[in-house]
C-alpha cells in the first residue's frame, strides 16, 4: 500500500473547496467582502496580501471559527457555513497554523499521533507515519524528543507532518515561512511543492509572494478584505500592477 497522501496525484480535478460571495464580520466590523474562491483537487493555491488584508480571516471562515454573514462555504459540495470546527476537520480539512503551534511538552511521536487520532484505519496510519519520517528524516532522528527541544525549522516540519497524518482532502497553511532563515525558507517551499506533487491539495497563506507564486498553480490577492487579483501564478508573477505593489519580496 502507498501512503494515503500519495494516492490522489492522478485523480480527476473535482472541486474540493469553494467560497461564493462570502462576507464575514468581527462583531459589527465587516472584514471580508464577496470572497469567491474555487480550489480543485490537486491544486496548490496561494492567498496573498498585506497585513490586515483578510488572509487569516479567510482561513478562519473555512475552518468554522468565523461564520459567514453572507454567502456560502462548501467542502466537497456540502455547505459548511454553520458546521463546527471539529466537524470540518473530521471531514477533510487540516491546517498548519501560523507559528507552528506544536505541543511543546509532548514528544515528536506523540505530536504525530495526535494528527491521526480521529482515523480508524490503523494499518494505513502506520504506513503514513513511516512515510512522514521518510519525508522528514530529522523527525525520525528526534522521535522521542520533546517538541520544545526542536529548532524552528524542525517544529515547522513537525506541524506539517502532523497535519498530513490526518489524511486531509485539503491542507491549509498559514505563513509557513514565518520565522525561518532564508536557507530554511527555500527548503520549506521545496517540501511544500513535493507534497503537492504527490497529490495533496493546498491552500497557502504566505507573505513571500515571489516564493509562493513560484510553486503555486493559481493565486488570489486580498486587499482590505476583497479579492483584487485572481489568476494563474505565472500571470501574476508577470503582472505589472502585481510587481509594483507586491513583488519587491515580501508584502
TrEMBL record:
<dbReference type="GO" id="GO:0015658">
    <property type="term" value="F:branched-chain amino acid transmembrane transporter activity"/>
</dbReference>
<dbReference type="InterPro" id="IPR003593">
    <property type="entry name" value="AAA+_ATPase"/>
</dbReference>
<comment type="similarity">
    <text>Belongs to the ABC transporter superfamily.</text>
</comment>
<dbReference type="GO" id="GO:0015807">
    <property type="term" value="P:L-amino acid transport"/>
</dbReference>
<keyword id="KW-0813">Transport</keyword>
<keyword id="KW-0029">Amino-acid transport</keyword>
<dbReference type="GO" id="GO:0005524">
    <property type="term" value="F:ATP binding"/>
</dbReference>
<dbReference type="InterPro" id="IPR027417">
    <property type="entry name" value="P-loop_NTPase"/>
</dbReference>
<dbReference type="Pfam" id="PF00005">
    <property type="entry name" value="ABC_tran"/>
</dbReference>
<dbReference type="InterPro" id="IPR052156">
    <property type="entry name" value="BCAA_Transport_ATP-bd_LivF"/>
</dbReference>
<keyword id="KW-0067">ATP-binding</keyword>
<keyword id="KW-0547">Nucleotide-binding</keyword>
<protein>
    <submittedName>
        <fullName>ABC-type branched-chain amino acid transport system, ATPase component</fullName>
    </submittedName>
</protein>
<feature type="domain" description="ABC transporter">
    <location>
        <begin position="17"/>
        <end position="249"/>
    </location>
</feature>
<dbReference type="GO" id="GO:0016887">
    <property type="term" value="F:ATP hydrolysis activity"/>
</dbReference>
<dbReference type="InterPro" id="IPR003439">
    <property type="entry name" value="ABC_transporter-like_ATP-bd"/>
</dbReference>
<dbReference type="InterPro" id="IPR017871">
    <property type="entry name" value="ABC_transporter-like_CS"/>
</dbReference>
